[in-house]
Amino acid sequence: MRTLPMAMAVLLAATVSACVTINIYFPAAAAEKAADKIIDEVWQLKKQGDAPAPAKPDEQK
Questions:
Q1: Residue 13 CA: distances (Å) to CA of 4, 5, 8, 26, 30
Q2: Cβ distance 45 to 52 under 8 Å?
Q3: Which residue, 42, 60, 40, 61, is CA-closest to 51?
Q4: How do residues 37-56 score in pLDDT, each as one tens digit?
């Protein structure tokens, strides 16, 4: 007779744990700053006329 209350408790615990939400915060200012830095580096390469060195065949994936 103790199996029914135990089963109900396990079912309740599983239901409650399934309702957990994980929020991840990405700071917009930091992401924008990183994107601006990458864009600036790319534009500097284009202005200098430097082409990036081609990757070796074994390094390409």
A1: 14, 12, 9, 31, 39
A2: yes
A3: 42
A4: 999 998 888 777 655 566 67
